[in-house]
Write a sequence for this structure.
């Protein structure tokens, strides 16, 4: 009997050992799968790849990325690479379904962003499906240059900004007055609505609350899917984002149809009293044609609008919120920023009714506040490029077809560039001019965000009136932060806005 028990125990242990060995073998095979699929075929070039690993099949390094950005320390994702492989500035990974190289230091970031002969846009297919293959992030270099020339003056030109300034200021003053009379607000939500109203006016000449709310609601769902795993299954963020994209296209298509019909009716007769006086971005997109006389198709116009309307309000709204929070948390910086705005108003002629671009340019300290906010928040954590051929960069090889992720967070939080990088300190910009590749809130190179001047104008106008006339009290200052798709308090900054006694 004892012998039988011993034999049974031996057999059980044998089975467990075989199971353990089997599991270890499966794990070894899975961990090597991406190497076999993507590295082995590179031949000698595989030995000059940056350090790192491609993770598990299909999933790659996405679980660790999402886990870090859903925690209280999103930078733990890159810290893991630095701890394992050293500060090499480049790491191989498998991100968003593709073998990739993550670049994290200014020199390599600058090269990737500015060398259009070596790198092209490399956004994930999942992102392209959401933003649009005909948008700025998907079109060719030549087409991008053409559309950028078309949209530059209507968005960032001096004349355009002068025209927009009056509308922006009127909208900001009206919104602040309204919020101050409310018991409490979701500060971020209201700021996003404000900036969306502004961009709708600039691009579509629309102030329709019904259209604005419908579009803004869909954009919220779209944004949550951009940095999510591309799982097109009900209940997942990406699935909801695809539905939002479909709804956005339908709404914008109806707007395009209406505008085309309106233009046919107007017949471009300048003597027609019904002809709209304001030419907006929609008009510009409908009018543009290439050297062969080809005009943009509806799909192209809609994809450009999807991208612009999204980028044109998200970053501005978030930056306004964070700048306000940071200033409230640092009274010494708030007082310096407020004193500058008071000086500007006191110098103003009595006949002047509102802000001018000249006054905006005189807001030198406020400009430092905005730049510091953009750095600390780093609204876009990365952009995507793709190697057109095998590229040697900083002694490493980036194989043709591999994605390159320019990791802005690592640059903006580098203590060698910005001492105490997670500390909000606008004074660090006093007498400091960032070197190329060290400050990238709007990207860089030929694909620099085309609406950067408009965004900074909106933020400056808002902060001007807020600093002079209002204060904000967060109701849940300890609210946990969320980092995807963008950094924000989980409660969207529930707050109480009040007019100050010293309002000007």
């Amino acid at each position: 009997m004892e012998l039988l028990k011993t034999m049974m125990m031996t057999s059980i242990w044998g089975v467990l050992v075989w199971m353990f060995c089997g599991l270890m073998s499966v794990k070894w095979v899975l961990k090597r799968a991406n190497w076999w699929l993507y590295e082995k075929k590179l031949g000698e070039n595989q030995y000059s790849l940056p350090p790192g690993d491609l993770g598990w099949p299909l999933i790659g390094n996405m679980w660790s990325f999402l886990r870090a950005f859903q925690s209280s320390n999103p930078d733990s994702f890159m810290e893991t690479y630095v701890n394992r492989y050293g500060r090499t500035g480049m790491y191989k990974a498998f991100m968003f379904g593709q073998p990739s190289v993550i670049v994290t230091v200014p020199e390599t970031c600058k090269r990737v962003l500015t060398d259009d002969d070596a790198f092209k846009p490399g956004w994930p297919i999942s992102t392209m499906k959401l933003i649009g293959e005909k948008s700025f992030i998907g079109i060719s270099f030549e087409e991008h240059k053409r559309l950028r020339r078309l949209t530059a003056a209507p968005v960032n030109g001096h004349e355009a900004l002068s025209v927009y300034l009056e509308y922006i200021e009127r909208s900001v003053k009206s919104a602040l007055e309204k919020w101050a009379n409310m018991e409490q607000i979701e500060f971020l939500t209201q700021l996003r609505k404000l900036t969306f109203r502004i961009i709708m006016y600039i691009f579509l000449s629309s102030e329709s609350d019904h259209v604005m709310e419908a579009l803004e609601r869909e954009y919220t769902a779209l944004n949550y899917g951009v940095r999510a795993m591309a799982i097109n299954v009900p209940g997942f963020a990406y699935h909801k984002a695809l539905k939002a994209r479909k709804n956005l296209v339908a709404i914008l298509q109806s707007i395009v149809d209406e505008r085309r019909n309106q233009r046919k009716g107007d017949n471009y007769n300048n003597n027609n009293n019904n002809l709209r006086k304001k030419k907006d971005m929609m008009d510009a997109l409908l009018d543009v044609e290439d050297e062969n006389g080809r005009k943009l198709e509806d799909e192209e116009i809609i994809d450009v609008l999807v991208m612009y309307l999204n980028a044109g309000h998200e970053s501005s709204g978030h930056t306004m919120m964070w700048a306000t929070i940071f200033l409230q948390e640092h009274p010494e910086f708030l007082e310096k920023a407020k004193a500058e705005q008071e000086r500007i108003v006191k110098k103003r002629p009595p006949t002047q009714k509102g802000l001018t671009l000249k006054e905006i340019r005189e807001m030198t300290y406020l400009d430092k506040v905005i730049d510091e906010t953009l750095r600390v928040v780093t609204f876009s954590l990365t952009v995507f490029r793709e190697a057109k051929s095998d590229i040697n960069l900083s002694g490493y090889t980036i194989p043709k077809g591999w994605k390159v992720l320019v990791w802005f967070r690592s640059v903006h939080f580098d203590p060698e560039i910005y001492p105490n990088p997670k500390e909000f300190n606008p004074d660090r910009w006093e007498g400091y001019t960032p070197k190329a590749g060290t400050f990238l809130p709007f990207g860089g190179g030929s694909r620099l965000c085309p609406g950067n001047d408009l965004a900074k104008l909106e933020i400056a106008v808002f902060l001007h009136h807020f600093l002079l006339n209002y204060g904000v009290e967060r109701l849940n200052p300890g609210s946990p932060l969320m980092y995807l798709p963008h950094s924000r308090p989980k409660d969207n900054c529930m707050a109480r806005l009040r007019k100050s006694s010293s309002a000007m």
Notes: Residues 26-30, 271-276 have pLDDT under 50 and may be disordered.
